[in-house]
Amino acid sequence: MNIQNHLPTYAENHARLPKSYGQGFCPWVPIILSSSVTEDGNALRVSTVVPVYGTKVDMLRRVSPDEECRSDMGFDRGAPHSLYIHIPFCISKCTYCDFNSTVIKSQLVGEYLKAIENEFQLINKKYSFKTVYIGGGTPSVLDETQLSRLLNIISKYVDVFNLKEYTIEANPGTLNNEKIHILKNSHVNRVSIGIQSFNDKYLKFLGRIHTAKETKDIFLNLREKGFGNINIDLIYGYPGQTLNEWKMDLRICSRLNPEHVSAYCISYEQGTPLANLIDSGISKKLSEEEELKMYENTKDFLINNGYIHYEISNFARQGKECQHNIVYWENREYIGIGTGAFSYVNGERYCNIKDVKEYISNVKSKNSLICFSEKLSQKKRASEILIMALRMTSGISKHEFLDRSGFDLAELFGKQLSNLAQAGLITFDDERIKLTRKGLSVADSVMMEFV
């Protein structure tokens, strides 16, 4: 799952929180990042920075004198080490999708790839990246020539031979043997397949362009070409789905034996065809009790089949956890390239223009590519570190929190920690804080305690 697609502002996330089951059930848990509100929570306080084209990274690294005097604990020396590249094109929009994507047009792709290369020039080898993630959209929708061009651009500016992890997202309906060969020859070492379901009835309902058979064939083709690190994306909880049907999806997935599984409960984003079906009464949401049963079954099944449950919605074989996404969950720094891509540099988070044509136009005219920017206060950043860390089942240690935020965990959040521990939602001992099994199922409400 492309985590960059879940990096909206605090206000957007706060509005998205679902109706709660008990303390509040939402197994994918909106990522709360931009806590730019006043202390009483009444007003947004966003300070937008619009540097000139060509000096984006340098200008965003400037800090005020009072910030220079602050502790810089938690900032990665020499970071960021992770790079995200957004390819916004798809053959068609899925019924549930509100991601930053657009239907593909060949001429636009060529202009977009040129724009991406120009943006690469802004950070020309300033950073030593350890992970690269190509997300979308559907990166595999590019034809063979376009895909080769994209990967050649990346290789020109990134030392791909020394990457620990090099991921591309793919749709089974747009990946073929020639493209797989191109990926392998370009040193991509991890493929994330957006399967979503192994049931043709639900694939059609979700607006997916592939079939269950195509999914299995592509997976096996990747294996035959030597890919030993494959993620399968699955979605559950959509209208009409039964627990037994979801169990069947998990069994089929297990038989394919991917190294990594991402399993997310479907969300109903305003303005999407799926949300419109719900609003009009044509389709009906599953109850939160049914969604919870599916989530609990997911955890039990995958853990019993040898997967490590390392993040709320993510499971991996030993050593195959997604290193790029862990950067987000550990609230560390990263660079994003392309439309709508977020970057996080020296405590400043900023987002590129989302509209493809406007992005291309601004690159050509050398205008700013940034549509949003904010600098978090030290306390807001500490809050964010804890919220993101709680997505990981390992949680965070007191020492690590102090080292990264400059704050003592108990002093900053002692009351909330005590209340949550008494409710059985977290464990909080002398060493670590982490969610309990009960807490994982109501994680959205737990995390809101620290906003």
From TrEMBL:
Q: Which GO terms describe its biological process?
A: porphyrin-containing compound biosynthetic process
SUPFAM superfamilies, per the entry: Radical SAM enzymes (SSF102114)
Could you tell me which Pfam families the record lists for this protein?
HemN_C (PF06969), Radical_SAM (PF04055)
User: Which CDD domains does UniProt cross-reference here?
Assistant: Radical_SAM
One GO cellular component term noted in the UniProt record for this chain: cytoplasm
The Gene Ontology terms for molecular function here are: 4 iron, 4 sulfur cluster binding; coproporphyrinogen oxidase activity; metal ion binding
Q: Which keywords are on file for this protein?
A: 4Fe-4S, Chaperone, Cytoplasm, Heme, Iron, Iron-sulfur, Metal-binding, S-adenosyl-L-methionine
**Compartments it resides in:** Cytoplasm
Principal localization reads cytoplasm
Where's the Radical SAM core domain?
75-304
Identify the NCBIfam families for this entry. hemN_rel
Q: Which family does it belong to?
A: Belongs to the anaerobic coproporphyrinogen-III oxidase family. HemW subfamily.
What is the stated purpose of this protein? Probably acts as a heme chaperone, transferring heme to an unknown acceptor. Binds one molecule of heme per monomer, possibly covalently. Binds 1 [4Fe-4S] cluster. The cluster is coordinated with 3 cysteines and an exchangeable S-adenosyl-L-methionine.
Indicate what this protein is called per its UniProt record: Heme chaperone HemW
Specify the species.
Candidatus Scalindua rubra
